[in-house]
Amino acid sequence: MGPHPAVAAIRLAVRRVLHDVLHDHARPGASQSRPLVLAACSGGADSMALASALAFEARKLPLRAGAVTVDHGLQSGSTARALDVAARLRAFGLDPVEALGVTVGRQGGPEAAAREARYAALSAASESLGAVAVLLGHTRDDQAETVLLGLARGSGTRSLSGMAAVSGPGGRYRRPFLLLDRDTTRQACLAQGIDVWEDPHNADPSYTRARVRHEALPVLEKSLGRGVVASLARTAQLFRDDADALDQWAAAAGHEARVAGDPDGALEVAKLRALPVAVRRRVLRAAAVGAGSPSGSLFARHVEETDRLITDWRGQGPINLPGGVEARRGNGRLVFRRATEAP
């Protein structure tokens, strides 16, 4: 008799990703040693299911499997809990396993600050341990929540495309469960007798994502049917395909608009004006980030205001952007530079 259907589903999802990792690792120039893959694990059902599947599948493949759990220090007893999660991960047979404490700042709100601290810790652990990939337990439900949050914030196509199956430098982060729902991971843990920890923050209405999860999505499902989550996740993939195509177009258009030989990377206004709005604003955003404006602080309103230097030019002065960068138009050219640099 085979494994429980939920257990089979999570193992198959992880197996496919591990084969992709091995394929990438086998490319010319890659090390021939057994690559290390880490599971990021909070102790919740999604990540514990992920860690159990990684431990099971890794034994059949020429790779090593480990895990990392992050202690955000936001709750009483969080350190002891992180150590307990680490012990249970080792009991799966994962090695190495690290429990890392982080300091969560305040910039961007508690959810964003915790996420930034967590990814910084995962990145550092990946580099120090020499891991080729870090698996994350985000599910189709998480993807649907991300799309709803993007819609509520009036975000652009890239934000509405949700989380990518592969992301980060060199494809470091892999999300095997984006096509599986949250209930599958819970059933997999139940079938395997795996104890899980429910983070109280996930039900705290002071957190935006928690309200989406426990209030907004249930209302949508009641009104429109249980297919809402799958539809939102499918919408994310459609948006991602569109965003990828637009980004490629914008990269080529930005290169074409550059003034040959200009040391500041100036862009020709006439060539920018001829571009569709969605492409032109991507070119402007990329130029601003290239000049030193932090991407996380560069919002749509900044890009829209910069776009007016092209579409509504009346001799106005430079546009000040985050990171001390300014966009200035002159002589039919648009230049992005640090505000302290001489024109």
TrEMBL record:
Organism: Streptantibioticus cattleyicolor (strain ATCC 35852 / DSM 46488 / JCM 4925 / NBRC 14057 / NRRL 8057) (Streptomyces cattleya)
Matches recorded under CDD domains: TilS_N (cd01992)
GO process annotations (BP): tRNA modification
UniProt note: domains: The N-terminal region contains the highly conserved SGGXDS motif, predicted to be a P-loop motif involved in ATP binding.
Lineage of source species: Bacteria, Bacillati, Actinomycetota, Actinomycetes, Kitasatosporales
Descriptive protein name: tRNA(Ile)-lysidine synthase
Catalytic reaction(s) noted: cytidine(34) in tRNA(Ile2) + L-lysine + ATP = lysidine(34) in tRNA(Ile2) + AMP + diphosphate + H(+)
HAMAP family in the cross-refs: tRNA_Ile_lys_synt (MF_01161)
Biological role stated in the UniProt entry: Ligates lysine onto the cytidine present at position 34 of the AUA codon-specific tRNA(Ile) that contains the anticodon CAU, in an ATP-dependent manner. Cytidine is converted to lysidine, thus changing the amino acid specificity of the tRNA from methionine to isoleucine.
GO cellular component: cytoplasm
